[in-house]
Design goal:
Length: 328
């Protein structure tokens, strides 16, 4: 998700000044959490959201003022969602609005894109000081969620917003059949980088999977070295038969691959057959815990599109639970 945001932000900055609004504090019930972003371009284009409604309209109005101002380059805005007509959520949001423009902003966005491409370990530091521009740091490598910190430098002490630059999670879809096509599209919209693996090269085409970052016609076992380098991996097994499921689960067990999510399509009978087959080989069911099988949230899905929606919903649920656990 961040990769897409900064890719479009770079394009907007090339056309003129942009104001980026970031949620830095929340209290009570709010539509978006700390770290959510909204950008307003000089041409009126909007990127991202901090929750919509009258509260977002207020932020856009403040951003329009900042776009036209010469000074300051940043300002804090508070939204009290208990006040009509801003909503009835009952909470409060504080946002930092920063004007991004010129060569410095373009260079910073390029650095951010490079950091996201190479993996985690870098943070975007935004001093809450109108005279200071955001910069990159690797001081807080263990940080997995954005937060405010008081940072001291040689010449100043300033409250700053520290935002870890985390690459989008990767979803590996094993099986390029009729369910894989809508899942690749919908999961891409939900912020996942898409890899597709299938041993039928004729199924792996850019026309069938325009959102895929990588098409993988090689055997699944040959992918293990590349998969082991991914820190945020989700796997959806949408194979054409239970024997392939057994083969892939054997490989995963032998490789001791780390992943956030593993789901397997099929009826309960097929799932039971797969797990019993592996158990007879000495591979217990809990070797894959948690295993989401049958895959997807139970919404009585039947069509490929409905199944893809149920799987994506489960991916989002798992990802958000992981993120929340990191914040505790």
């Amino acid at each position: 998700m961040e990769e897409a945001f900064y890719r479009e932000l770079a394009e907007m900055i090339s056309l003129g000044p942009v104001v980026v609004a970031t949620v830095i504090r929340t209290q009570g019930s709010v539509p978006r959490q700390v770290g959510a972003k909204l950008a307003l371009g000089s041409d009126g284009r909007l990127l991202g959201t901090i929750g919509g409604g009258a509260g977002e309209a207020k932020v856009i109005a403040e951003a329009q003022i900042l776009l036209q101002a010469t000074d300051p380059a940043g300002v804090e805005v508070s939204i009290d969602l208990r006040d009509s007509p801003l909503g009835v959520c009952g909470g409060r949001m504080n946002l930092w609005l920063q004007r991004w423009q010129g060569s410095l902003a373009q260079a910073r966005v390029t650095q951010i894109q490079q950091a996201l491409a190479t993996g985690g370990g870098t943070q975007l530091i935004t001093p809450l000081d109108p005279q200071r521009f955001p910069y990159l740091s690797s001081e807080f490598q263990s940080l997995s969620s954005p937060q405010l910190k008081v940072l001291r430098t040689a010449d100043a002490t300033c409250e700053s917003f520290v935002d870890p630059l985390l690459p989008s999670p990767t979803l590996l879809i094993v099986g390029a059949g009729h369910c894989g096509i809508p899942l690749a599209q919908i999961a891409h919209w939900a912020g996942f980088r898409i890899w597709i693996q299938d041993d039928r090269p004729e199924y792996l085409t850019p026309e069938r999977f325009p959102t895929a970052q990588r098409l993988c016609p090689q055997p699944f076992s040959d992918l293990i070295p590349d998969l082991s380098c991914l820190a945020d991996l989700y796997i959806a097994l949408l194979t054409r038969g239970y024997s392939l499921d057994c083969q892939i689960l054997r490989t995963l067990h032998q490789a001791k691959l780390s992943y956030r999510y593993l789901g397997m399509i099929g009826s309960r009978k097929r799932v039971k057959t797969v797990l019993q087959t592996l158990a007879q080989e000495g591979i217990p069911e809990n070797a894959f815990a948690p295993l989401y099988a049958p895959i997807g949230l139970e919404i009585h899905a039947e069509t490929p599109a409905e199944i893809a929606i149920s799987i994506t919903a489960q991916l989002i649920q798992t990802r958000r639970e992981n993120l929340l656990s990191c914040q505790i």
